[in-house]
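Much of our argument rests on the idea that a fold can be written as discrete symbols. Part of our work consisted of pairing the sequence of a single chain with a tokenised description of its backbone. No coordinates are needed to read the tokens, only the vocabulary itself. The record that follows shows the chain in one-letter code together with its fold in token form.
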Amino acid sequence: MTNNITVIGTRGIPNVLGGVETHCQHLYPEIHKQFHNNICVIARSPYVDYKISSYQGVTTKSVWAPKKKSLEAIIHSTLASFSTLFDKSDIVHVHAIGPGLVVPLLRILGKKVIFTHHGPDYDRQKWGDFAKKILLLGEKLAVTYASEIIVISEVINDIIKDKYHRHDAHLIYNGVKLPKPLAQDKIDNALFEFSLTANNYFVAVGRLVEEKGFHNLITAYEKAQLSIPLVIMGDTDHPTPYSEKLKEQASKVDGVIMTGFLKGEQLQALFSQAKVFVMPSYHEGLPIALLEAMSYSLPTIVSDIPANLEVKLSSESYFPVGNIEELTSKLSQHAEMNSEKVNYSHYLDYYDWEKIAKQTMSVYNQTALEKS
């Protein structure tokens, strides 16, 4: 029905750190594979080293953006919006509420706009009062003026129903790809690099930002006085006082290993061989890292925020968000257990990228039929 789709709101693909980025990296190649659409993902220049390239059939184009967190999203999204005047796109798909500020502009430019709400980013601790107001405005403009809305969780759907009385959003979950087995030598090499033993370390994954709760995790790990390592995989886009303080905190606790940003087979190797996955987040949209941990059949310890509860794990997997004592207890319990792999196949059926691509394409086709 519709052939030309432009994507705005991601830093870029492939292998760029971030939940929206991972979402786009999996979604658009799958849509292209199934439906052969012409899809262009517009990336931000500080995160990619191409001008125009491609990834698994998806065109990727770099547009300049300042590498300054307060200006990056809005300046890039504005420039990207104007670039759609020349790309013959039928539909522009905007991801996240920061870039959502440009949805009215895109409508003025004559575009049909799909907006995916990935979560209330204004709840994140890293933003000051002014930035939070801008993000709230982005949410309001995007939800009000988008042709169609996609939400990745029922929690987000409830937000836009309650705040903006928009009841026609399409609930389409985030997804996860089931991992392919790695050769044993690649697993061994990755474990050796960080002095790890298979099934004998905790793992946490994410950006080094305050809402991920890694400071609580390190504190709880230190209090538990465990003999198995804690591996934190991730970094931050821009060095911040919080990220520097977190790294300093980690350096003073024996057993904490900060790997930095890993990707590809190295990331898969360390993820797949962990004993337990831990997510102490204060804020998530729908956590892709948790879904990935489930794809590796890892036991989990996760905070009881709404986005994590929506996955509907067993009650033993949850602890009260921010409660260091409870987290310490959970870590101690799992350290002493012979943690066995968990069968999450029933859960993961909801998060299948093939199904998600079909659902998203259905929204595109519906939008293409609508009047501008």
